[in-house]
Specification:
TIM Barrel; 8-stranded parallel sheet; 8 helices; binds D-xylitol-5-phosphate; binds zinc ion; zinc; RibuloseP-bd_barrel; cobalt; Aldolase_TIM
Length: 223
Amino acid sequence: YQPVKIAPSILSADFMHLADDIAMIEQAGAAFVHIDVMDGHFVPNLTMGVPLLKQLKAATSLVCDVHLMIDNPLTEIPWFIEAGADLVNVHAETLTEEELVRAVAMIHEAGCKAAVALKPKTPVSALAPVIADLDMALVMSVEPGFSGQSYIAGSDRKVAEAAALARAAGNEAMLIQVDGGIGEATAPLVAAAGADVLVCGNAVFKAPDPALALQTVQAAADV
Ligand code: DX5
Ligand code: ZN
């Protein structure tokens, strides 16, 4: 049994004091730092990209978990790997089956971990072409685009389905990450369903004591 990992999303951090926020989540016990890359096309919002990742990578020992919410991941995957991504998350909706296989292979050939993300309405079966090779699957529990939204009820069922699909494919090591509306109340649900990595934006960074909030979510998931 492995305790759940917390992946704070810096989309909710204080960009004017980002270095302080990164040091805080490191000390509080975060495992990953989650970087939400949005292009204004695949999702309506526009956030951060390669230059920020480069500086972040130089400043932290946390696993840099890059969530690509962009229309053309095959073009940009090499840029993010070059900038320091340790784990690259691509959305299944942006790629054909054949492209998805190519994306995962490209990420692995560069020595990085590969994950595939699913929007709330995308079935778990979209993972099938690559599930045997994935390091992680990302179940979105909100529509991607913005932090601070509410967890979509029933997302925990999708976590359980993804876990079952990985098991059936013989990929016992695949992690399951959940992203969107995760906090003290929702963490136990998704953890019980088999989630290994919890992304937290507002629940950590908008809390009065963010380090304590991170540990509270982790403790809530571990009961
Ligand atoms: C949503 C992003 C999330 C988001 C999480 O599109 O992928 O990572 O920032 O924020 P919270 O935890 O506030 O829902
Ligand atoms: Zn995300």
